[in-house]
């Protein structure tokens, strides 16, 4: 290869620190998840400090002072944990899929743990995957908001619902264009 094209092609390795950074962000998420989980378990055993920290982290307010775990708090904390897991899935998709698509092959073909979606990953598959993951995350957020609706302004509830709908429509649009493109170019699809 001539020097300039090979330099341009080699520049894809500049993305490597970005993916490594995302792996670190993933580690922070894992730590956060465990902190919340430990708080939940402590609160279940009657630790009031842990309970207070949970209540403040999920933004739950009630007229009476919360002295013990109730179903709403447990549900909100569990939803928050699911949220972390889903964002973590999103991170893995971006890290593994993005690296494989834009930087370098990972050569996972014969690996028993190769994720099903990676076998045919490309930029458009990744886009659809990310869109559906974002909808999942948005749904969990919406659910959290509605369970805790008393503590939110009507405007916030309305906007969250509108934004969620926009996410749904844009994901539909992405999936549709992807489908149309793969139909118009059957040769590129294996």
UniProtKB/TrEMBL annotation:
Topology of the protein relative to the lipid bilayer: Multi-pass membrane protein
GO cellular component: plasma membrane
Keywords: Cell membrane, Membrane, Transmembrane, Transmembrane helix
Bilayer-crossing regions: 16-35, 73-96, 156-176
Similarity comment: family membership: Belongs to the UPF0114 family.
Main location: membrane
Signal sequence range: none
Domain of life the protein comes from: Bacteria
Subcellular location: Cell membrane
Pfam family, one: UPF0114
Protein name in the entry: UPF0114 protein HNP48_004720
InterPro entries referenced in this protein's UniProt entry, alphabetically: UPF0114, UPF0114_bac
């Amino acid at each position: 290869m001539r020097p300039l094209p090979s330099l341009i092609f080699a520049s894809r390795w500049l993305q490597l620190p970005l993916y490594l950074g995302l792996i670190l962000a993933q580690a922070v998420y894992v730590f956060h998840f465990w902190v919340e989980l430990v708080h939940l378990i402590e609160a279940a055993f009657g630790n009031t400090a842990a309970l207070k920290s949970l209540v403040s982290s999920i933004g739950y307010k009630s007229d009476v002072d919360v002295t013990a775990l109730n179903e709403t708090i447990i549900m909100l904390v569990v939803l928050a944990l699911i949220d972390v897991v889903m964002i973590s899935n999103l991170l893995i998709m971006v890290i593994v899929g993005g690296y494989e698509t834009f930087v370098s092959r990972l050569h996972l073909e014969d690996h028993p743990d190769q994720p099903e979606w990676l076998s045919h990953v490309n930029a458009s598959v990744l886009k659809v995957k990310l869109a559906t993951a974002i909808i999942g995350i948005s749904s969990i957020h919406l659910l959290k908001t509605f369970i805790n609706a008393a503590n939110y302004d009507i405007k916030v509830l309305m906007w969250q619902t509108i934004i969620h709908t926009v996410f749904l429509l844009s994901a539909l649009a992405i999936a549709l264009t992807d489908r149309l493109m793969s139909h118009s170019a059957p040769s590129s699809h294996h």
